[in-house]
Amino acid sequence: MLLTGLLASVELGLNRVLRLDSTALPRLAHLTGKVIAVDCRNPALQLFILPSDEGLMLASQWAADVDCTLRAPASSLVKLALSKDKTAVLHAPEVELDGDSGVLLELAGVLQDLELDWEYELSRWLGPVATQLLGGHLRSRARWYQQGFASLNQNLAEYLAEESRTLVGQREAEARFSELDRIKLDLERLEARFERLSRSLDPSDNA
Amino acid sequence: MTDQRKGSDAEPTTHFGFKNVPESQKAEKVAEVFHSVAAKYDLMNDLLSGGMHRLWKRFAIELSGVRSGNRVLDIAGGTGDLTRKFSNLVGPTGQVVLADINESMLKVGRDRLLDLGVAGNVEFVQADAEKLPFPDNHFDCVTIAFGLRNVTHKEDALRSMLRVLKPGGRLLVLEFSKPTNALMSKAYDAYSFAFMPLMGKLITNDSESYRYLAESIRMHPNQETLKSMMVEAGFDRVTYHNMTAGIVALHRGIKP
């Protein structure tokens, strides 16, 4: 009963998030009627996912047949939930899939493509004007931080390479490396020439 | 334990809460209770169970095994909590019938579901659980949540449900039952006989209906008795799950 309650709360939050993407629910509607079992090894836990046009339903048990079973350790499942490339995690060797894997791949695809419209949700609570002001402010802050970070990066690199001479600059390093490559090639040619000369002067060879 | 059917000289009586009433009057009295509480039924359910009724119903849905294309009958469906979920599960190729004997409850349920956009695969039928107006072997799953204790002849209702189920179909009975823990039982008694009528008085101005609710729960057969009643009616593989220390039990039986 505790697990049922927990899943009900997770389901409520998850479906609220899914509603923030206008394309997620219509895409999930194609999976209506499908049942995906997630069998977590270590710790042993089973849960069932039922997609529909209302979102995802999570159940701790399901009496009907399942279409697809995903068996994986908890670490892989967490990776699957957080990773941007979910299909790559599904192809990992510790992940087992039984049944119609297309259902799971489609669900993973929907979750991977989520683009959440936070501003819409915020506007329901704060109203359009306040959301616009807040959104504009947050966006300009984010831009400012991005630019600040990029400029700090550049300045730091310039200081370390040019002013303090602690590090070698990129172009200088590239020139040095190409010089080293050239010397290495020259050295190999010289070695080959020596080898050939020493062979031609060797009396035993002429014999 | 359920219905005291007497000889032909006197009208048989049955219980209505702790009182005994003639059988012909029980349905009428139960109807009065539900006409009175229908408008605030959901609010009272949430308040009195602390939202637990949602989890109990959720568990029933998990065990129902309903899938796309199934035909489901939700008896005593009231305000349509189970029907809404079933409608989603059976999809456009399935069908859900919300049946309730009480016109007020059915009206509240129908309006609520239509407001939520649940339509197309749902039908609303005013029907008596003892004489279900459906063909034999018609449904894949029949549920009755918190309704069986209000039925006058429970054995007849169970047999009627068996009749309309397809072979292999499932009956789920979600109903208040007997707490398995003595301490819990005492606390539950105090809660139901003091707090529930008080809340009824404060919110719906009707303490009698909620006193009936508490009394009818005590008069309802316990887990084992209901199980044997289902077996007697003809169900196979009857099992039950206690929830919240036995305050509620979910019985499941399969039509052979």
UniProtKB/TrEMBL annotation, chain B:
Keyword match Methyltransferase: yes
Example of a GO MF term: demethylmenaquinone methyltransferase activity
Keywords: Menaquinone biosynthesis, Methyltransferase, S-adenosyl-L-methionine, Transferase, Ubiquinone, Ubiquinone biosynthesis
Enzyme class: transferase
Cited InterPro entries: SAM-dependent_MTases_sf, UbiE/COQ5_MeTrFase, UbiE/COQ5_MeTrFase_CS
Gene3D superfamilies for this protein: Vaccinia Virus protein VP39
Alphabetical list of Pfam families matching this protein: Ubie_methyltran
Single GO biological process annotation from the record: methylation
Domain of life: Bacteria
Record: residues binding S-adenosyl-L-methionine: T79, D100, D128, A129
Pathway named in the protein's UniProt entry: Quinol/quinone metabolism; menaquinone biosynthesis; menaquinol from 1,4-dihydroxy-2-naphthoate: step 2/2; Cofactor biosynthesis; ubiquinone biosynthesis
Role summary: Methyltransferase required for the conversion of demethylmenaquinol (DMKH2) to menaquinol (MKH2) and the conversion of 2-polyprenyl-6-methoxy-1,4-benzoquinol (DDMQH2) to 2-polyprenyl-3-methyl-6-methoxy-1,4-benzoquinol (DMQH2).
UniProt record similarity statement: Belongs to the class I-like SAM-binding methyltransferase superfamily. MenG/UbiE family.
Record-given protein name: Ubiquinone/menaquinone biosynthesis C-methyltransferase UbiE
